[in-house]
Amino acid sequence: MVRTQSNLGFKLMAFGYKFRDFFTPRRTILKEVGIGSGYQVLDYGCGPGSYIVPLAELVGKSGKIYAMDVHPLAIRRIQAIASDAQLSNVETICSDCKTGLPGNSIDVVLLYDVLHNLSTTDKILEELHRVLKPDGILSVSDHHMKENEIVSLVTNGGLFILSKKGEYTYAFSVVTGICHH
């Protein structure tokens, strides 16, 4: 479960992200992940949609972006971005945990600036593990947390192992052979 912020809080966050994105374009961060054409990507906790347009360029028309957030304003903003940019490969999911996606269907999950705000981290990581392909990547970045906090939180359940530390993100690989109920 994600703690939901007020509409005003969401709008202030979205405004602040415009400055952040100017100084560090989201494309720079996404390049570090290695997303390619045809990838299926889940942007978990997509917020105001800073990653949607650069993601669409990376995955191309053959790829798919699932933008998921618990906040209805986030979903509406993503739908507006997709409509304005004529992106037919963006699908929104309004949920706080369950994605509704098939197991082993996602190449990359982005978990950016949301990990610190999760109240049921274990359940969410189980869901992300379930939807990721065996060779999938969980890409995590959270400026509210220290490196050791991020790594231990993501790896403690035994579902993921740290595979690469980049300048902006941490890449975690799926631990295979774990059943989901």
What do you see in this structure?
The protein has 181 residues and is of the alpha/beta class. It has one domain (7-174): Vaccinia Virus protein VP39 (Rossmann fold). 36% of the residues lie in helices and 24% in strands. The chain is built from six helices and seven strands. The longest helix is centred in the first third of the chain and has 17 residues, at 7-23.
What is the CATH topology descriptor?
Rossmann fold
CATH homologous superfamily assignment? Vaccinia Virus protein VP39
**Share of residues in strands:** 15-25%
Which CATH architecture would you pick?
A: 3-Layer(aba) Sandwich
Short characterization:
36% of the residues lie in helices and 24% in strands.
Brief descriptors of the model:
Rossmann fold; 6 helices; globular; alpha/beta; 7-stranded mixed sheet; 181 residues; 7 strands
Ordered list of secondary-structure elements with their pairings:
Layout: H1 7-23, H2 26-33, E1 40-44, H3 52-59, E2 64-69, H4 72-84, E3 90-94, E4 106-112, H5 121-131, E5 132-141, H6 147-155, E6 160-165, E7 170-174
Parallel strand pairs: 1-2, 1-4, 2-3, 4-5
Antiparallel strand pairs: 5-7, 6-7
